[in-house]
Amino acid sequence: SEHLQKSGIPSGSQDKVSVLDSGPEMAEPQLAVDPVATSNLSVKAPEFYPPGYNQNFNQNFTDSSFEDRCDGYLTLAEYVQDFLNHLTEQPGCFETEIEQFAETLNGWVIADEALQELVELIYQQATSVPNFSYMGARLCNYLSHHLTISPQSGNFRQLLLQRCRTEYENRDEATKGDETTRRQFHAFVLFLAELYLNLEIKGTKGQVTRAEILQEGLRELLNALFSNPVDSNLICAVKLLKLTGSVLEDAWKEKGKNYMEEMIQRIENVVLDANCSRDVKHMLLKLVELRSSNWGRVHGTTPHTEATPENDPNYFMNEPTFYTPDGVPFTAADPDYQEKYQELLEREDLFPYYEENGADLSGPGELYFDEIDDEMDPEIEEAYEKFCLESEHKRKQ
């Protein structure tokens, strides 16, 4: 320590010094390489979480059984929000954990206010967290069929649609608003599209249909977006039609409506007249092209028929290739196939101990194998002995 102080090195840096000799004849101390600086980054840093995600996520979702997860929650909002965050982080657990989640809610949501709060929490998560709109729509569909509470103010599905109607009625103002307002509105539009695709309504006769009110709502939302053709509104419209275009057009055709033709005409007018960017115009044209190909769907033009050499040009594609005695290849597609193949079968007596596929049919004691000479050729035997001697010599060395 005294020597280090005389050398001008703090005593606290002793672990950075390599001392060759402690005697007076020692030369200058040699400094070791500075240790690698450790990073202060954490896997729990806010940059690694999507917007709106609660970083105080309760680890009980991964460390304990589901029955114990609600023990530490003081409010319904805390429990539901943690489960929504859990789905955001691990969407694959939906199938295994949604049933228990619904059962827990049935024991907790027993008042109108609690049901309203549940609807609002799910709506906010689905419209504020990127990529949660699909999972939120699936969650809404499941709860609409499994929550037992049905107060006078409306059941879960009715309250959810009422909440969506609040945003829907402000569509014209939202499409003309600032960037933040439009971004929030676009998130709502895409969530409503997912609801239309995933929310199932069971009829009185047991048939399952989509919410028709959402079908009309999406049409009005598209009109609002095209009425204010700025880039962000047009991009949202393209996403909406890519997601639901085929389903909407089929539903409109069943009613005898040409609404999709009207939408395509509006898109073409926007491409010609609007001052949107070139990239957005390209997206719109690609959407028109997608619709002209029936939204990428492929339908069979003819009923299924049994493949035959007459109607299928690839009928013989997987047939094996044989060779005549002259080395000329032929397959089942050859007109003289039967004659040539029969000739090939007649030559099988040249190989009495093998099947057609080469499998060995001979047994022990057969003449063919008894005649085989097991002794080595003298030259090969001499080479083998030399090899063994050299190997033994190398091993002893």
TrEMBL record:
Gene3D superfamilies: 1.25.40.180. One of its GO terms (cellular component) is cytoplasm. GO terms for biological process: regulation of translational initiation. Residues 1-25 are annotated as: Disordered. It is found in: Cytoplasm. InterPro entries: ARM-type_fold, MIF4G-like_typ-3, mRNA_TranslReg/HistoneTransl. Keywords: Cytoplasm, Translation regulation. Its main location: cytoplasm. Residues 77-294 form the MIF4G domain. GO terms for molecular function: RNA binding; translation activator activity. Pfam families: MIF4G. It comes from the Eukaryota. This is Polyadenylate-binding protein-interacting protein 1. It comes from Pardalotus punctatus. The lineage of its organism: Eukaryota, Metazoa, Chordata, Craniata, Vertebrata.
